[in-house]
Write a structure and sequence with these properties.
11% strand; 105 residues; Arc Repressor Mutant, subunit A; 3 strands; 56% helix; 3-stranded antiparallel beta sheet; mainly alpha
Length: 105
Amino acid sequence: MEPLSRITPATADVLDALLGAPDPVWGLRIVQHTGRPAGSVYPILSRLESAGWVASVWEDDPGRTGPRRRLYELTADAVPAARAAVARIREGRTAASARIAGASS
């Protein structure tokens, strides 16, 4: 697993969605969970997979109609790093909110 050069709030949202999923999850569910556009989520998933943070497989459900879905999950090695990254982004958001609240009072 390679370290990520930067973790944006959007990347943290994707990591959070993957951390909260008990099983591999398909990309559109991650889009829905994060509220981020697919045009942001899928490149993030690709970057995470290239870095070894995420593994993906094509869904194998012959009884399902429609196009096949790609299922994503965090690799075991990535789980602690993902938790730490999400926590750092949350702390940054909380600190920024506190500064804004302090400035407006």
